[in-house]
C-alpha cells in the first residue's frame, strides 16, 4: 500500500511543473533521471510509480557537479551552504537560497502564527551555521517577521546546569527550541519557576512518540509541542501539534510526500520519499524529487503515527527493532524514566548482533523489571523474539539502572542526546 500527501491538489500542479522545469534546465542529475519521460504532463501522483527510476539518495548528494544547479555552481544567486551531521559517513553540503528561506517560512507559518506571534521569548538550543536547524528556525521567523525574540543558547550550557539555569533565569523564556530528547531532559532538571512559563516547545531531529510527548507535557504543564519532521535537504517537511488532549495529523505544507511499503515485512512502517516544491519564480539550492531519505513513517489506520529517523532502527539478524517500540514501553511504564540502547552490529569479531537496552528508574529498583521489559518487547515485535529465543542468531539484554547512571561511560556530544550507541562507531 502507498500513500501520497502534501501538495497534491489541482491548484498545486503549476508549482510542481515549474519546479520540474527549472530542475531539468539547470541540473544534470535530473536531466538524466527524467530522460525519456513525458515530463511536461507529469503530475505529483505519477511520482508514486517512479520511486525506483526517479529518485535521489543521501549518497547521491556528494556528487555536487551533478546535483547542484548551474546557477548555484556559478554563484549566480546568493546561497548559504549548510552541513549535515554525517549520518551517511561524511557530512554533505547543501546549498540554501533566499527563496529556500521564504519556503521554510511558509512551511512553519501555520503554527508560528497560531502559537508564537505574540511577544514570545524563544530559548533556542538549535545550533547555528553550519548546522541547518538554527538556520531554519532563525531564518523562517525573520522572514515571517514574527512578533518574537530569538535567544541563541550556547549548547555547551546543556552540560553545565548552573550556567544553564542562570541563562534561562535572565531570559525568562516562554518557548523552547531543541532536539526531541533534549526537551524531555530539560523537563527533568529545570525548576518549576522556569517550566511554568513555557507555553510552546518546538522539537525535531529525533523520533517523538505519543508516549514521549505525553511524558514531556507532564513535565511542562502549560506547554504544547510542535513536532517538526525536517532535514537539511528539505527544511521543515512536515509538522504536527501535540497537546495533553489531542495530537493533530502531520501537515506537509510545501512538499509532496510518498509513503511506500519498505518490503521488510513490517507493514506499518512505510519508506518516505520527498519531493521539494517551489513557487513560480523561485530558485532552490537543491532540487529534490522522490528523495529517499531513509526515514520511515509508521502508518496506523491511514494516518502517520510516528516518523522514525533512519538512525533509530537496529537490525537483530532477520528482525528490526524500531526505537518507537521501546519508547512506547518505557514512557508508558509508571516506574521507568528513560533508556539508551548499546548496539553491537554483526561483524567478523561479533558473529551475533546484540542489543543491550539500559532502562532508567528513580528511587527503588522495580522488582522483575528486566523480564517485564523483555516480554513487552517480544509482545510488540515477534521477529525480535524469534531471532533471540528460537533461532539464536541475535542477543538482547535488558539492564535496569538508576537514572543518574543511565549514560555512565557513554560519550556525550554537544547539542545531541543519543539513544542508540553503536559499538565500533560511537564506542
UniProtKB/TrEMBL annotation:
Top-level taxon in the UniProt lineage: Archaea
Question: What keywords were assigned to this record?
Answer: Phosphopantetheine, Phosphoprotein
InterPro entries tied to this protein: Adenylate-forming_Reductase (IPR051414), AMP-binding_CS (IPR020845), AMP-dep_synth/lig_dom (IPR000873), ANL_N_sf (IPR042099)
**Which stretches make up the AMP-dependent synthetase/ligase domain?**
73-238
- Entry-linked PANTHER family: ENZYME, PUTATIVE (JCVI)-RELATED, PHENYLACETATE-COENZYME A LIGASE
Specify the protein name. Coenzyme F390 synthetase I
**Originating organism:** Thermococcus onnurineus (strain NA1)
Amino acid at each position: 500500500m502507498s500513500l501520497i500527501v502534501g501538495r497534491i491538489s489541482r491548484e498545486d500542479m503549476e508549482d510542481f511543473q515549474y519546479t520540474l522545469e527549472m530542475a531539468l534546465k539547470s541540473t544534470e542529475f535530473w536531466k538524466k533521471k527524467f530522460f525519456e519521460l513525458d515530463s511536461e504532463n507529469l503530475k505529483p501522483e505519477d511520482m508514486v510509480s517512479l520511486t525506483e527510476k526517479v529518485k535521489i539518495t543521501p549518497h547521491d548528494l556528494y556528487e555536487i557537479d551533478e546535483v547542484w544547479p548551474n546557477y548555484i555552481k556559478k554563484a549566480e544567486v546568493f546561497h548559504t551552504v549548510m552541513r549535515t551531521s554525517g549520518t551517511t559517513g561524511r557530512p554533505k553540503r547543501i546549498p540554501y537560497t533566499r527563496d529556500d528561506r521564504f519556503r521554510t517560512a511558509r512551511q512553519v507559518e501555520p503554527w508560528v502564527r497560531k502559537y508564537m506571534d505574540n511577544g514570545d521569548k524563544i530559548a533556542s538550543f538549535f545550533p547555528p551555521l553550519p548546522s541547518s536547524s538554527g538556520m531554519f528556525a532563525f531564518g523562517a521567523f525573520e522572514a515571517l517577521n514574527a512578533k518574537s525574540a530569538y535567544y541563541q543558547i550556547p549548547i555547551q550550557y546543556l552540560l553545565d546546569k548552573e550556567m544553564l539555569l542562570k541563562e534561562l533565569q535572565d531570559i525568562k523564556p516562554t518557548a523552547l527550541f531543541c532536539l526531541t530528547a533534549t526537551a524531555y531532559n530539560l523537563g527533568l532538571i529545570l525548576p518549576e519557576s522556569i517550566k511554568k512559563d513555557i507555553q510552546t516547545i518546538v522539537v525535531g531531529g529525533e523520533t517523538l512518540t505519543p508516549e514521549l510527548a505525553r511524558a514531556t507535557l507532564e513535565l511542562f504543564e502549560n506547554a504544547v509541542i510542535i513536532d517538526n519532521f525536517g532535514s537539511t535537504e528539505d527544511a521543515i517537511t512536515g509538522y504536527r501539534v501535540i497537546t495533553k488532549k489531542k495530537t493533530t495529523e502531520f501537515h506537509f505544507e510545501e512538499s509532496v510526500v510518498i509513503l511506500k511499503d519498505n518490503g521488510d515485512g513490517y507493514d506499518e512502517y512505510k519508506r518516505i520519499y520527498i519531493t521539494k516544491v517551489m513557487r513560480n519564480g523561485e530558485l532552490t539550492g537543491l532540487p529534490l524529487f522522490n528523495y529517499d531519505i531513509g526515514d520511515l513513517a509508521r502508518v496506523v489506520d491511514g494516518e502517520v503515527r510516528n516518523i522514525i529517523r533512519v538512525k533509530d532502527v537496529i537490525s537483530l539478524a532477520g528482525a528490526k527493532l524500531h526505537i518507537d517500540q521501546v519508547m512506547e514501553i518505557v514512557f508508558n511504564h509508571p516506574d521507568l524514566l528513560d533508556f539508551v540502547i548499546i548496539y553491537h552490529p554483526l561483524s567478523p569479531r561479533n558473529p551475533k548482533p546484540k542489543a543491550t537496552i539500559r532502562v532508567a528508574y528513580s528511587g527503588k529498583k522495580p522488582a522483575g523489571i528486566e523480564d517485564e521489559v523483555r516480554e513487552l518487547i517480544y509482545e510488540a515485535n515477534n521477529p525480535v523474539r524469534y531471532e533471540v529465543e528460537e533461532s539464536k542468531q541475535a542477543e538482547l539484554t535488558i539492564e535496569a539502572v538508576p537514572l543518574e547512571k543511565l549514560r555512565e561511560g557513554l560519550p556525550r556530544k554537544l547539542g545531541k542526546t543519543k539513544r542508540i550507541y553503536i559499538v565500533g562507531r560511537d564506542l
